[in-house]
Write a structure and sequence with these properties.
Two copies of one chain form a homodimer.
Chain A lengths: L16 H4 L4 E4 L8 H11 L6 E4 L5 E2 L2 E2 L13 E4 L6 H11 L3 E4 L9 H17 L2 E3 L5 E4 L6 E4 L7 E8 L2 H13 L4 E6 L8 H10 L5 E6 L5 H11 L5 E5 L13 H5 L2 H12 L2 E2 L3 H13 L7 E6 L2 H13 L3 E2 L4 H10 L10 E2 L6 H12 L6 E7 L6 H15 L2 E7 L5 H9 L4 E2 L2 H19 L12 H13 L4 E2 L1 H10 L7 E3 L3 H11 L3 E6 L12 E5 L2 H16 L6 E6 L5 E10 L3 E8 L2 H4 L4 E5 L4 H10 L3 H5 L9 H17 L3 E11 L7 E2 L2 E5 L1
Parallel strand pairs in A: 1-2, 1-5, 5-6, 6-7, 10-11, 10-12, 12-13, 13-14, 15-16, 15-17, 15-18, 18-19, 19-20
Antiparallel strand pairs in A: 3-4, 8-9, 8-11, 21-31, 22-25, 23-24, 23-25, 26-27, 26-29, 27-28, 29-30, 29-31
Helix pairs in contact in A: 3-4, 6-7, 7-9, 10-16, 11-16, 12-13, 13-14, 14-15, 17-18, 19-20, 22-24
Chain lengths: 709, 709
């Protein structure tokens, strides 16, 4: 065991440094028993060559692992920055209090049996939280597997992980300790080096957001990986992640997609917004990359940790085997990447370097007997082509070829071209030397071409995130007081589901046009109104008995004259009046437009308000073609929302249709967002549909529902 | 080197046995040079312990690898069943002729430089093909890496693969030799054993279909894997695969998705049918599982080779770690599997076996300190629950637990429950012993829970394929001669793109109704026709100048009286007559229905005729929501097509709409299929739209185009 001087920088202002950059560590519960958690932590600290002193704390033993042990933390003569707690759960609180007395700055509580174990555990957790907060101690855990910081001047492995992490440029926080263990093992095996690691457990104090911030400020971290089961504090996460994602890629595996289940809700918007769509939208808005699996997270991390983000999407594939070249092409195109068009010069240089039968276009097939020299020449040609942003080198090792030499050729090309270079070494069993050479040179190596393509596409996706303009927070002149008055009126009348005039008032206050309408108590009134606003008109049955009017054939559109209004009025009254004595019949000016769209807002228990956009009718209801964003949205978000649906071409003017006023739709989404910000009592809102044409002056909401919380 | 008696069964009737079950093998081009291809083949044969004699053939050496060498195959005194040819390309034909003289029954031609290398190579290939066919020799290759049969009484490794395949129950054919090499290496590393393997090269004789058939008949093969770049003979493949897929799972990686590109075509159907959608449909129709990547193919193969297909989709997850349990749940639900609901008895037994804080529901979380005993009891409880079809055991190895003991508990549960069991051993580095125990016991082990879930979903998908009813070939009474006459008339008049009456005739002959219409040469004729069929009518501009009438606002619907017809006629005539002097104006009875659908047929260069179904308008054109099947289709295919589109709820009666006559749509698809079978000259056909309501008697095609080849 080597001992060097203590970590150079003492914990400064940022209290999270007490956890990740402690000058000294106490291990409370450092047992003499082999394979006990405390003993493993102690071993990891010592074998990991922690740069400060480590103090075993054990109530019953005087020596643990040949080190002097203390009965309590407060017995230690020297200062203690960090205490790792691995004692039985009933002793944790006493230990925390003792640590507070001693002036310990950070706790990593490994012990389980807190909130996750029922009411009693939750009480224990609350007490721990209070003790730590009072003493100003930062806490990771409880119920976690520890933390790691591989910085040379710290070398902290305060975990009971069985695998020693390699130092590197990836930082990782996980809400599952078990997954943390597995991931450290995999990282090592895949050659992914770790800068900082934290298993965050029950989040009594330090959250995922705190860690993202800490990793973001860590100059040794190039990539941030997260495994999350919940966001904890979505708004703070959003703020932090949005800024940081422009500096460093953040890759998240977010689980719990299926467990949430759809909430029961009265409106379309409410029922469509499941928890996962909110998580998905939040990440998208922040520019955080979501990996669909842990394996995919590693696939991405290897690329981000080692290679520059390519300037564009144009990929050159250089291969010595046709089949894998085609697989790589398929996968690249499938991920939305472009196959680079080689310049005439490149094609010429390639042709000169290749034998007959080889392909001098993209993918460049150097054929099976390609040696390192042929790879070198081909890569040099492709690497100097200004139309190439990234290079994917695919190599299948024939018995006749010197694989390590090919690996060196690829590594040299990556170095000299400066272009993003990824390698796929297939059938790697015998190519371990080649793989090692590439890893050493910082060229990520994949086993299958599809993985390499997936990694490359993640780099390009990140570039698009990073480079998209920062959105602006747009505010319009609105009449908040008018909206509030309308809400108060409805509340006083005992209404919480607002329709008709109630909603119209609120929308008007926010500059969102609604189609003129009245509730006609008799057919005469209906005819009079129709004459006033002009034909054609629409007649609608309003009832609390049926949520969707079309289900009961309760809407008559295109009524062109008095006779038609009369006939429709009588039909609805007779047919539906039987089903609801309080049936109301609304006459409304018929709005002409090119498209019907739905705009909505709903409140997610975890993420707060969400905004929804989609095309009306079957598009939302049957095809589920919607775009969702987490409130608040910027102008960029609004523009993206409108364009995110599959049916967008219908708004842009597909097949002889006139394009609608898309800017108006964006503005209306922003006005909705402003309404949600101003009026906290709005729990759900459906504008379904808003009819819109070429010109905003004719656009109007023809049906709306608003639920107060 | 061991030598046993020659393979017991001599090549019988089935000539492919000459390749995979030879009694003796000659290696032509067996060089003295190390790492030469011929030398590697010889070494693999000998080290693989081929059960018959191996004869090196080398024009220049008398001894190769301590074995007597022959100058020519015909110099060998003993009979030769199989010759592996690895001589320079210019000598291949002479060798083949010599083999024919000798009475060799099968050739594996490894040498490259044939069709893939240009015109001269193609000629060489043609000559080889003829020579072999004349002599009745079956040929694999040229341009391949060889074949393998691990059957104990054969032990044939006639390849130059660097990796020795493990014997096992997976057979594999690959169109890319390089991928074959990589895949054999991966198979070995992943513990996937091989029964038969073939790198099929240029397919001069033996095709993928032949191999699927051979693998299907091989009693040692449980799973068939294919890597294909093209199908070669899609119809034969379909026939063979359809039958075999009911007996053994077939998993395909089909590449070349992106390289094909969309064909230029005049009709919707034609332009929508890209090569990949055809491949996708063909595989789906045959019940062949498509893997999206080579890695996914292995994920599936490991499960198929070792575990039974589960009787249902209900999965029990048993885990010692919450996070991975959630990931497994997410992935299972994401793949369409169900989380089993445990019976009261199971829940009780689980609760008894688990400590406080553990979860006795599904996923069953045994928490981190679960030992082998707790796993055993939980797995026994879950394994005997009649509501559980498959078990996914997820284990993260804490330092404190005996991982091999847990592995044994899982293996025993798999054995005793008889239920499909898959395991995920995370952070496997230190658990290699556990992984080995599970593999030995035939329980596939995955690294990540998502992979295990993907494998399980493949098993369930296969069960659905296997168990779906066999479709029937349905034929209707039609008037083929009437259709042929209509085609002849059009041909004589020089028309190949048929519209209007031409198509109407053909459709009528096949019992497909079209809306009554005429081309009105003046407005009087239009008015007369409208009066005859009854209002409302539709007026349409027909012109070769514009393919899509709606793009030029050339369709007027809902004309309710003479005035409206007059006005519309004059407008179209004036506005569009300028653009096309040969403009025709068609008056058509307006068909009332609930939905507009598109039915179509197009010819794919590789797959032959394809059939298409979709909802009309934006559904096909903008949202690309279509179902495609390869001709011919069965009644089951037709039923699946109609239901395969996302918009199907609109046909089944979503949101207050009346359901349409779906059976009529199925029948019309089958009638189209029959037409395609009868009339080979139909290259493309669009029925766009067919309007259909509740009752077939009112349904009719209102626009159709048919292109003759």
């Amino acid at each position: 065991m080597k001992r060097k001087s203590a970590p150079s920088d003492p914990p400064p202002g940022s209290s999270i440094d007490a956890l990740f950059r402690p000058r000294s560590v106490a291990v409370v519960g450092a047992s003499r028993r082999r394979h006990s958690i405390g003993r493993e932590v102690l071993r990891n600290l010592v074998e990991g060559e922690f740069q400060g002193p480590v103090f075993p704390v054990n109530a019953k033993a005087e020596v643990v692992q040949s080190m002097k042990a203390y009965a309590r933390v407060s017995d230690i003569e020297d200062p203690v920055d960090l205490a790792v707690v691995a004692v039985p759960r009933q002793h944790v609180l006493a230990v925390a209090k003792d640590c507070a007395r001693k002036g310990v700055k950070g706790l990593v509580v490994i012990t389980a049996g807190f909130r996750e174990a029922g009411r009693e555990g939750a009480e224990r957790e609350e007490a721990l939280k209070k003790t730590a907060a009072k003493a100003g101690m930062r806490v990771i855990g409880p119920n976690c597997m520890g933390i790691v910081n591989t910085a040379d001047d710290v070398r902290l492995n305060a975990s009971f992980a069985a695998v020693k992490p390699l130092p590197g440029r990836v930082s990782f926080a996980t809400q599952s300790g078990a997954l943390g263990e597995a991931i450290l093992a995999d990282a090592r095996e895949l050659g992914v080096g770790i800068s900082m690691f934290a298993s965050i457990g029950n989040l009594v104090d330090v959250t995922a957001s705190d860690l993202v911030e800490a990793f973001g400020n860590d100059p040794r971290t190039d990539v941030i990986l997260l495994y999350l089961e919940s966001f904890g504090e979505p708004r703070r996460f959003t703020q932090i992640a949005r800024e940081l994602a422009r500096k460093k890629p953040i890759v998240v595996v977010k689980s719990g997609r299926s467990t949430a289940g759809a909430r029961a809700a009265a409106s379309h918007t409410g029922s469509l917004v499941g928890m996962d769509i909110a998580a998905e939208s939040l990440l998208e808005q922040c520019g955080v990359l979501r990996a669909r699996s842990v394996a995919e997270m590693f696939t991405m991390a290897k690329a981000f940790a080692n290679q520059p983000v390519p300037a564009g999407d144009r990929v050159a594939i250089v291969t010595n085997a046709g089949g894998p070249g085609i697989l790589a092409t398929d996968a690249c195109v499938g991920h939305g990447l472009e196959l680079a068009e080689f310049s005439a010069r490149t094609t010429k240089r390639l042709a000169a370097a290749l034998p007959e039968g080889a392909a001098a276009q993209n993918p460049a097939d150097l054929i099976a007997d390609a040696d390192a020299n042929r790879f070198s020449r081909a890569l040099a040609a492709v690497g100097s082509d200004a139309g190439v942003d990234a290079i994917l080198a695919v190599f299948v090792s024939p018995v006749t070829t010197d694989a390590p030499a090919v690996a060196r050729a690829i590594a040299e090309s990556a170095e000299s071209s400066g272009k993003t270079t990824l390698a796929c070494f297939m059938g790697k069993e015998k190519d371990d030397e080649g793989v090692a050479i590439l890893r050493e040179a910082g060229v990520p190596v994949y086993r299958f071409p599809e993985e390499a393509a997936a990694a490359l596409s993640a780099l390009c996706r990140y570039r698009r995130f990073r480079d998209r303009p920062r959105g602006k927070d747009v505010r319009f002149e609105v009449d908040v007081r008018r909206a509030r008055r309308a809400i108060q009126r409805a509340r006083r009348a005992g209404r919480t589901m607002l329709v008709g005039e109630d909603v119209g008032e609120i929308l008007a206050a926010y500059g969102i046009p609604t189609a003129p309408s009245i509730v006609a108590t008799d057919v005469g009134q209906a005819l009079e109104f129709a004459k006033e606003v002009g034909y054609p008109v629409v007649l609608k049955a309003e009832s609390e008995k049926f949520a969707h009017k079309t289900d009961v054939d309760g809407v008559r559109v295109g009524l062109k004259n008095g006779d038609e209004v009369f006939e429709a009025y009588e039909d609805l009254r007779k047919r539906l009046g039987r089903r609801d004595r309080n049936l109301k019949l609304r006459v409304q000016k018929q709005i002409k437009g090119e498209a019907e769209v739905i705009l909505g807002a709903a409140t997610d228990p975890q993420f707060g308000p969400l905004l929804l956009f989609g095309l009306g009718g079957v598009h939302v209801e049957v095809l589920r073609d919607v775009a969702v964003r987490v409130h608040p949205i910027s102008d960029i978000d609004a523009a993206e929302m409108v364009r995110a649906i599959k049916g967008y071409p219908l708004l842009a003017g597909a097949r002889g249709k006139r394009p609608v006023d898309v800017e108006f739709l964006e503005e209306t989404l922003l006005r909705l967002s402003q309404m949600i910000a101003d009026l906290e009592e709005v729990a759900e809102l459906d504008l379904n549909p808003l009819i819109v044409g070429e010109d905003r002056t004719t656009a109007a909401v023809v049906d709306a529902r608003l639920r107060l919380s």
